Amino acid sequence: MITSITTEAIAFFTIQSAAILPAMIFTAGLLRGQGLSLVEVGRYQAALKKQMEFWVTLLFLDLAAVMLLIIGKAADWKWKVSFEGYGANMAFVLIFCTCLSGVLALLRMVPFVRGVMSLLELNGLFVRKALEAEATKVPPETRSPSPAKPMALPEGYGKILPHARKRRKTT
Question: What are the extents of the domains in the chain?
Answer without folding.
Answer: 2-136
